[in-house]
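[worker-b] picked up task from shared queue
[worker-b] task type: protein-ligand structure
[worker-b] ligand name resolved to zinc ion; SMILES cross-checked against name lookup, match
[worker-b] sequence length check passed
[worker-b] input payload:
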Amino acid sequence: MSDRLQDPILNLKQTVLDFALKMSRSGMAPATWGNVSAIDRERGVVAITPSGMAYESLSPEDICLIDIQGNSIDKKWKPSTETPLHLVFYRNRPDIGAVVHTHSVYATAFASVGREIPVLIATLASGVGGRVPVAAYQPSGTEEFGTAALSAMGDRTAVLLANHGVVAVGKDLNDAYTVAELVENAAKIAILAWIIGEPAELPQEEVSRLRRKYLTKYGQKG
Ligand SMILES: [Zn+2]
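[worker-b] inference finished, payload out:
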C-alpha cells in the first residue's frame, strides 16, 4: 500500500493539491489567486493551499495544515491569505467538508455588478439550489469577508463575493469543485443568452423539485 493511502493527512493534502492544480489549469483562478481547502473533522484539521506559491511547483507536503482556529500545525508555509474565509464555513456549517474559492471570469463579472446569477439552466438548480446570491463587499482576508459570504449563501452551495469572486462549498472537494464549475458555466450561459435573446428563468417550484431530486436521487443515491 502506498504512503498516501496509509496516511490520511497526506491523502487530504494530496487531494487539496490535485484540485488546486485542476483549478489553476482550468483558468478559473488566474495565477495563484484562488484557493482550495478540505477538512478532516475527525482529526480537527484543515488542509489549505499556501499563500502565493505556484501550484505547479508544490508537492503534497507543501499544502498547509491548520486547526479550525487557523493555527498552523505543520508550520512549514504561510497558509492562504483567504484562510479566514474558509474557516468561517467550517466553523459554522458542519455539513461542509471542502471550500473552493475562485475568481472565474464570468461569475466574477456578475459579482462586479452585484447581480445574482439567475437560474436559466437545470444544472444550476440541481447543484446550487437556486440563484447564486451576492455577498456585500468586504475587504478580502478579513473575518468580515467570510461572515458576509456565509450569511449571503444561506441554503445554497455557492455565493458571489461583490467585486471579487466566487465561493463554492460541498461535502468534499469533488462536490465543491463541481459547484464552482457549474456556477461559472451558468454565468457564461446567462451572459450569452442575454446577448442573443430574452432567456426565461426557471420557476421556483421547478428549481425546488430539481434540487430535491438531485439531493435524493442523483448518482448512486436512492
Ligand atoms: Zn479571492
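[worker-b] attaching auto-annotations
[worker-b] The chain has one domain: 3-217.
[worker-b] releasing lock
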